[in-house]
Amino acid sequence: MKINKTELQKALEKVKPGLSNKELVEQSTSFAFMGGRIVTYNDEISISHPVKDLNVTGAVKAQSLYAFLSKIKRDEIILEWEENQVVIKAGRSKAGLVLEQ
After folding, report:
1. 23 vs 25: CA distance, rounded Å
2. Which residues of the chain have pLDDT under 70?
């Protein structure tokens, strides 16, 4: 699926305060995608934000996803959700991030 990188990054920025520095709670250092929303949570708070055209389910390490998106120069990216990973493509750049259980 094609998605606007800037819109995705803005949504990730909004939910970043819900990330934990250490994984005290399972997936507390991850961005969780839950049916059109991005969710973060730790042992104190949970933050959720809608993302247009991203109706998928899964979680990826926040630092890996954000770092890769920050390096991409293109406005539009392609996300492909596979069995155990999400593949991000932008021009000739490509990365596979493991989906957490």
Report:
1. 5
2. none
* Domains of the chain in sequence order: 2-98 (3.10.150.10)
Buried/exposed code over 24-37 (b: 16+ C-beta within 10 A; e: otherwise): eeebbbbbbbeeee
Q: Shortest CA distance to 11 belongs to which of 54, 42, 58, 43?
A: 54
Q: Are strands 30-34 and 2-4 parallel, antiparallel or unpaired?
A: unpaired
Quote the mean pLDDT of the chain: 92
Please check whether residue 83 is in contact with residue 37, taking contact to mean a CB–CB distance below 8 angstroms.
no
pTM of the model: 0.88
Structure tokens at 51: 């993302």
